[in-house]
């Protein structure tokens, strides 16, 4: 199973999904949201498979696993070289778990953002209390409308 390009698939399937979603009509928000949510589960499945393979075969072995290497630009010695170890794999799993959750949370957003210079970056101040925070004149925060 080490010969399959699972890391590259986990990296580049979101790019492919973003390109396909970009080709959809922009006025159909329902379709855009559902397709984005669907495409977020493809890397989730790939990384989940990597997790189970790693815990079954490589857990006790040190070093990088699922390593892929390909020459990219030989004239300058550049190559594409990726792999995961015992620290990066849980971080990849965390990222692919949070991505569908963030997309799902965005379903309730109206999609419009307004710049509110009266509130500070940390979220308290002018909008809630009626007073302007004294951090700096350039502190702003985006709020969903």
Helices and strands, with pairings:
Layout (H helix, E strand, L loop, with lengths): L5 H17 L6 H30 L6 E9 L4 E7 L3 H18 L7 E4 L9 H4 L11 E4 L1
Antiparallel strand pairs: 1-2, 3-4
Helix pairs in contact: 1-2, 2-3
Beta-strand segment tally = 4
Task: Give the % helix.
Answer: 40-55%
Question: Major sheet: size, sense and barrel closure?
Answer: 2 strands, antiparallel
Helix/strand class: alpha+beta
The value of Rg in angstroms is: 21 Å
Mean pLDDT: 81
Task: Domain count, please report it.
Answer: 2
Helix tally equals 4
N/C terminus separation: 48 Å
Please indicate the percent range of residues in DSSP E strands (runs of 2 or more).
15-25%
User: Unreliable segments (pLDDT under 50, ≥5 consecutive)?
Assistant: 124-129, 131-137
Strand order of the largest sheet: 1-2
* Run of helices and strands: HHEEHEHE
The 3D shape can be described as globular
Task: Give your account of this protein's structure.
By secondary structure, the chain is α+β, with helices and mostly antiparallel strands. The chain folds into 2 domains: 6-108, no CATH class; 110-145, no CATH class. The protein contains 4 helices and 4 strands. The N and C termini lie far apart (48 Å). The model is unreliable at 124-129 and 131-137 (pLDDT under 50).
